[in-house]
Structures are given as structure tokens and as C-alpha cells.
Amino acid sequence: MLQVGNLKTEFRTDQGTVTAVDEVSFRLAAGETLCLVGESGSGKSVTALSIMGLLADNGRVAHGSILFEDQDLVTLPERQLRGIRGNSIAMIFQEPMTSLNPVLTIGDQLSETVILHLGLSRAQARERVIELLAKVGIPRPEEIVDDYPHRLSGGMRQRAMIAMALSCAPKLIIADEPTTALDVTIQAQILKLIRDLSAETGTAMILITHDLGVVAEMADRVAVMYAGQVVEEADVFTLFDEPKHPYTIALMRSVPHISTPAGDRLASISGSVPSLLQMPTGCRFHERCPHAMDRCRDDRPELLQLSGQNRHTVRCWLYDDAAQPGTTDAKVLA
Ligand code: SF4
Ligand code: MG
């Protein structure tokens, strides 16, 4: 359904052009949930915004392709892209307050989408919105429909956002840290809601998170991002049982301390994500990697498919011999 091939996204800044996403490739089948996981600044959100065509004015996709049902979203004119966005592809953001219009009632903004995309009348749209609000577990939907966003709790607003995302029966939902701003109990409820609804409707999902508990709960497949690149991709069981990339292994080590605040989980890896303005040469992880070899400092590893493994790719020189050059996702998709 979705094939991202060799995506490179750049931003113009005062200090020059920075590459926020580089050589990112992955694919997603209908109904699948792919988690993009990594520290903040690893390029997860920029990848999502590139797919949606919602990059800031100073950003652009400089290279690569984003094939959605055989249309390349990179080269598609904005008018057609707008048709796909909010129709076939919907997005759920971390903070619903920024995506809900504060001066419109919940009913009015959800109706707007439904009227625009499904061509319903006002009265039909209102009925449909009440149905949707009930579906996402909002109590008294026939009253809430006339409330303004600020009257709702954070959890209820996020439910309203999910209702909005679902209102056009999208084929793909991109959710960027959808529960990070919520307390733990509400987080679990919202995640369960998203999972149940996407299973029910067969919607594929890209779920962005830095939380491995969320990954374990939600993912079919996982792509681990580091410094703007995918460093490993596999199905969720393989990734948790047999992580290969030293960065993924370090991430996994932080799992047992699930109660540790998210920001501290990677304390076991010394150093921090490199600045986009000063990307290390060679492997971008080499300054933090306990296994770094001489070649890691100079040669950039490619994302290679591990031989004998079904769709398990890793970007690390340690697996050079075990990999099958020429069969990487990146190469196949390029
Ligand atoms: Fe570590 Fe080298 Fe592998 Fe990079 S390529 S993760 S530095 S071993
Ligand atoms: Mg982000």
C-alpha cells in the first residue's frame, strides 16, 4: 500500500541546508501497523510530515519516492495531494488542541470534514458525527457535539481527533505520539481504541513513538530510526527477540525499566543524537557504539537485508557478511 524509497528531506536554515531524513525506506501493507521508533530528533515526525506533504515552508523532499497505491506523493500536485490527505490518509497529532479549531464546536469541525469528503447534507453529517463520537467512546455524544474543544478533557479531545481522523474511513492513519500528552491510564485506553478501530476497519497505520511499551502493544512491524535514518526494520517479535543493530540492542536494554520517565530511558547509551548540522562521517552511531571499528568512522553502512531473514534489514557493518547486498529494501525501491 505504501512504499517509501530512499526518502531524503531537507530544510533551509540560517546555518545552511540540513538533512533531517536521509535514505529512509520502508513499506507498509494494508492493515499493517508500523511503528517508527527513536529518540527525539531522529527524523520520525519529519518522515510523517513528508508523507503527508505537510512540511514547513523551508522544508522539501529532495530525493526519493513515496508510493501510495501506485501514486508518487512526492511529485503529485498539491491539489491532488489535498484530496488524498484527510481522505485516504489521515493524521492524528500529539496535541489535539493545535489541530482542533478552538472557535468551532466539535460537531461543526467534524461535520466540515464529513460534508467535504462524503458529500453529506448538514443534517446527515450531524448524525454521522454523533455516531462517530459514540464510536470513539465519548459519553453523551449528542451533547458533546455542540461543545467547544476547550470544554473537553485532554483524553476526550484526543478521542475527538481520532473520530475526525476516522470520519472519512482512511486507508492509512499516521499517528505522531498520539498519547504522549495524556496520563498513563488514558494513554492505554486511547491506544486500545486506536488498535480496535484500525483492526475493525483494516486501516493501516504508521505510529510514531519513543515508547517501547507502546511499540510492543501496537506494532506489527518496527522501523528504528537514528539520526535521520532507519537503522533496523523487522517484525515486532524479531525486533524484540533478536535485535541486531547496536542502537536497537541498547534501546531494548532500556525496556525493563518501563517505569523510568521516557526521557531517561536511553541513559544507558552514552552521548546524544548528533546535530543535523554536524553529522558524523561513516556510521552515524559510531561515536556512541560499543562495537565501532575503524571502517565505521569512514564508510557509511547501507540498509541491508539479512540473509535467510524475511524482511529484516539492518544498517551496520557488523552484519556485512550475513547480509545480501543488492536485495536491500533501499535498493529494490530506489
Ligand atoms: Fe556500530 Fe559500526 Fe555498526 Fe555503526 S556500523 S552500529 S559503529 S558496529
Ligand atoms: Mg516528533
Structure in words:
There is one protein chain. Strand 11 and strand 12 form a beta hairpin. The strands form 2 sheets. Strands 6-7-8-3-9-10-12-11-13 form a 9-stranded mixed sheet, sandwiched between helices. A 4-stranded antiparallel sheet has the order 2-1-4-5. With 334 residues, the chain is of the alpha/beta class. The chain is globular, with a radius of gyration of 20 Å. Helix content is 34%, strand content 23%. The structure holds iron/sulfur cluster and magnesium ion. The site of magnesium ion (MG) has 3 residues, from helix 1. This is ABC transporter ATP-binding protein. Belongs to the ABC transporter superfamily.
Task: Detail the topology: elements first, then pairings.
Layout: E1 2-13, E2 16-28, E3 33-37, H1 44-52, E4 59-68, E5 71-72, H2 78-84, E6 89-92, H3 96-99, H4 106-118, H5 122-135, H6 141-144, H7 154-166, E7 172-176, H8 184-201, E8 204-209, H9 212-218, E9 221-226, E10 229-235, H10 236-241, H11 246-253, H12 294-298, E11 304-306, E12 313-314, E13 323-324, H13 329-333
Parallel strand pairs: 3-8, 3-9, 6-7, 7-8
Antiparallel strand pairs: 1-2, 1-4, 4-5, 9-10, 10-12, 11-12, 11-13
The structure holds iron/sulfur cluster and magnesium ion.
Iron/sulfur cluster (SF4) binds at residues 245-246, 283, 285-286, 289, 291-293, 296, 301, 316-318.
Q: Kindly state the mean pLDDT as a whole number?
A: 86
User: What is the fourth-level CATH superfamily of the largest domain?
Assistant: P-loop containing nucleotide triphosphate hydrolases
Taking the alpha carbons of the first and last residues, their distance comes to 17 Å
CATH fold description of the largest domain: Rossmann fold
Taken in chain order, the helices and strands follow as: EEEHEEHEHHHHHEHEHEEHHHEEEH
Number of strands: 13
Instruction: Give a short account of the largest sheet.
Output: 9 strands, mixed
Strand order of the largest sheet: 6-7-8-3-9-10-12-11-13
Contiguous runs where pLDDT drops below 50 for at least 5 residues: 326-334
Family: Belongs to the ABC transporter superfamily.
Main location: membrane
Pfam families: ABC_tran, oligo_HPY
InterPro entries: AAA+_ATPase, ABC_Ni/Peptide_Import, ABC_transporter-like_ATP-bd, ABC_transporter-like_CS, Oligopep_ABC_C, P-loop_NTPase
